[in-house]
Write a structure and sequence with these properties.
Number of helices: 6
Largest sheet: 7 strands, mixed
CATH class: Alpha Beta
Structural class: alpha+beta
CATH superfamily: Class II aldolase/adducin N-terminal domain
Number of strands: 7
Distance between the termini: 50 Å
CATH topology: L-fuculose-1-phosphate Aldolase
Order of helices and strands: HEEEHEHHEHEEH
Shape: globular
Strand content: 15-25%
Helix content: 40-55%
Length: 180
């Protein structure tokens, strides 16, 4: 069942342009650790996820972003995490100082403030900064890298990802129109 949900959500992320190539990853918390997409696999056909224990060595096949997912699970109550590379959110993070504040109604409802955090992909700094941001928010943007969204299910984390990208797209378009 978990394999099907990884494939379903991964396909949605891919089909909606929220990831490209083999970018991004998904994970679901379990009692002993969390299952995460295999490194290098495509989200629309990720294969069976890898179990990463909360303590002990990390399997070599696990995504390199497993440290961020681990920190999120250790710091927050989220049970699922989606990491995507939505282009408008990434672009906005490169020019935005401070959090992104959506102006559209869905964004205001689902993610009224989106923190933008710093840290190199896969680094301890990024893991700490994203986990801290997700203690009080549903989604955060890693500057120049992508979004991390938490939820009780992959579906919920996906919805936060999609809402954040929609809000960032609306902000980019509104700024373009305001300049005219």
């Amino acid at each position: 069942m978990q394999d099907q949900e990884f494939r379903r959500i991964g396909a949605r992320l891919h089909d909606e342009g929220l990831v490209a190539g083999n970018f991004g990853n998904l994970s679901v918390r379990g009692p002993e650790g969390f299952h995460i997409k295999r490194s290098g696999e495509y989200l629309e056909d990720p294969g069976p996820p890898v179990l990463v224990p909360f303590r002990g060595p990390v399997p070599a096949q696990a995504s390199r972003e497993q440290a961020v997912h681990r920190a999120i699970y250790e710091t927050t109550g989220h049970l699922a995490v989606v990491h995507a590379h939505p282009p408008h959110a990434v672009a906005l993070s490169l020019v935005q100082q401070g959090p992104v504040v959506p102006r559209d109604s869905k964004g205001q409802l689902l993610c009224p403030e989106i923190p933008v955090v710093d840290g190199e992909p896969g680094s301890a700094d990024l893991a700490r900064n994203v986990a801290q941001a997700l203690t009080g928010h549903r989604v955060a943007i890693a500057r120049g890298h992508g979004t991390f969204a938490g939820g009780t299910t992959l579906e919920e984390a996906y919805l936060h990802t999609a809402a954040a990208e929609h809000s960032c797209r609306v902000l980019v378009l509104a700024r373009q129109l305001e300049r005219k």
